[in-house]
Specification:
Elements: H1 3-23, H2 35-47, E1 53-54, E2 59-60, H3 85-94, H4 109-122, H5 144-148, H6 157-173
Antiparallel strand pairs: 1-2
Helix pairs in contact: 2-4, 3-4
The protein binds heme C.
Heme C binds at residues 44, 47-48, 50-52, 72, 74-75, 80, 82, 88, 91-92, 96-98, 100-103, 106-107, 115, 119.
């Protein structure tokens, strides 16, 4: 190979390498000034990136095209509003809403809280404006305290006993 050709080839290789790294340099864009939110984004990038897109955590795991979508591609959180934070915590614990595809408890404890707060805060930034539907930016992020408060709709403990008792009593009273 002639010298100019070699130089050209090397130049082309460097250009290609530079381009390739440029593509991979999308960074987490949550400021470190808020350590918990930033940590949430880092964890999201590490644990959730394979299946979900969220540009603030530099992830692209959601399906790009419905024709090439795979069974385990999760929703795109740039588009989908995931508020309040209780909704995200529930999905993390339950494995999505159906509990069928997404693994449960990919993160737990404080890490789950950090991830949930990050997702609630930074999701839905590209959500389409739909007339009659409250915009994501207008939807409250909610609090973790709220999310962890005992639910009034899930019957547990003695109250569930009395509920069961009541329904049995009703059945008995039927002719
Ligand atoms: C193996 C792929 C996979 C991984 C890993 C994964 N998810 Fe999911 N996720 C899904 C799928 C698929 C759905 C939708 C299915 C469903 O709701 O049952 C989903 C649903 C969700 C939902 C509910 C979205 C909605 O509006 O329906 C949330 C919130 C969520 N994931 C957050 C996370 C977070 C946070 C992580 C990381 C800790 C994570 N996911 C990791 C695949 C995954």
């Amino acid at each position: 190979m002639s010298r100019p050709a070699k130089v050209l080839l090397l130049g082309a290789l460097f250009a290609a390498a530079a381009l390739a790294t440029a593509c991979g340099t999308q960074r987490i864009s949550v400021p470190t000034s808020d350590p918990a939110l930033h940590e949430g984004a880092v964890l999201f990038n590490q644990r959730c990136s394979g299946c979900h897109t969220l540009s603030y955590a530099a992830t692209h795991g959601s399906a790009q095209n419905v024709r090439t979508a795979q069974f385990n591609n999760g929703p795109n959180f740039d588009i989908r509003c995931e508020r309040p934070v209780a909704r995200v915590l529930y999905a993390i614990q339950n494995g999505g809403f159906s509990g069928v595809v997404m693994p449960q408890n990919v993160v737990v404890g404080q890490q789950a809280i950090d991830v949930a707060e990050f997702v609630a805060r930074y999701s839905g930034t590209k959500a389409p404006k739909i007339p009659g539907v409250v915009q994501c930016s207008q939807t409250p992020v909610g609090t973790v305290a709220e999310a962890l408060a005992p639910s009034t709709t899930t019957p547990t403990g003695p109250s569930s006993q009395s509920l069961i008792g009541r329904s049995r009593a009703k059945k008995k009273s039927k002719p």
